[in-house]
Amino acid sequence: MIEYIENLLVSYGLSQSMVSYTSVIIAGMLIIFISALVYLLAKNILLRILRAFIEKSRTKLGEALLKNKVFERIIYIIPAFLIHFFAPVFPSFQVWIQRIAFSYMVLVLLAALSKLLDAADDVYRSFEVSKSRPIKGYLQVLKIIAYVIGTIVIIAVLIDRSPLLLLSGIGAATAVLMLIFQNSILGLVASIQLASNNMVQIGDWIEMPKYGADGDVIDISLHTVKVQNWDKTITTIPTHALIADSFKNWKGMSEAGGRRIKRSIYIDMTSIKFCDEEMLERFKKIRYIQQYINDKTEEIEEYNKRLGIDTDSLVNGRHLTNIGTFRAYIVQYLKNHPRIHKGMTQIVRQLEPTEKGLPIEIYAFTNDTAWAAYESIQSDIFDHILAVVPEFDLRLFQNPSGHDLRRLRETSGSSCG
Q: Which of 211, 269, 302, 343 shows its CA 20 to 30 Å from the CA of 247?
């Protein structure tokens, strides 16, 4: 090619010195033009035909390859291949042109391999098993290995040394490499442990206050686990931190189908008393505890009569209390509530009295684990419980508010007047 261009330039009357430089420049521009032309033809014709064929076939792998632009990366190798092929045109620079072109082809292949692994991950994610056994971390390890090998090959080509010679020197630099890839090694080990022990999956709701994470796991990779919090922010947690630190996984709650309610109301202890006849007659009209009142009244009367207890004094013998009747009512109310899980624990209990009164704790499970539904069910239950407290001649404890103090002052003022 060079000789043909030189002869052509000589025929136009150029000097020999000008011919040498000009012919090299023209040959170089011609090769670049040919490479660019072939690349554009491949991109605009061959690639479009390939894309149309894949879109028509509608395969998961084909769609993933198009989405990750694998073929776009591969065709970048065409210009480098042509430049490498035409390198003998420039004898003085042939060796370095071929080395650089080959190095570029290795980089293109590495980029294409990286996108190919991404496509494989996309295909794998379309299967249900991907949620419990993600492979993104392992694919990232393969990428790192490929880039390390590719870097060694490129260096070996540029310095004209055998790759095996460079690999033999890696042993001496093992400590340095372990320091460089420390996070990757920790991430790989953590990924294997997470997968083998089934500790966390994509879609799990996890809570890790140390990192401000409280939401659904949306991605598990070699180095990080991404959590989309309930306020739609994204928290990234180092993968190895899930092994080194503790975190709460709410998957068990979701799989069980019940979400726990554990909340107390505080009863003013000065309102607790024995039930008199008027109260018992009133309580018998409450549907949920009619049978309870009848059974307990009969049981207590029989007990006191058997032991010959004088019931004129309420201190003697056994008697129903408004707080005990109230607890029995809540128990029956929960048993008959359509949104309470019937197969899980239900407890209504007294806790240790405090300066705020007597805590009555409701411990039960809703049959809907969705957050919004759970909060709605819990609120409805306590709306009802708080509203019925006065029906049992009980009072809720509440610290005095400004309104209470103002009423007290007005009452004191009117009594003085």
A: 343
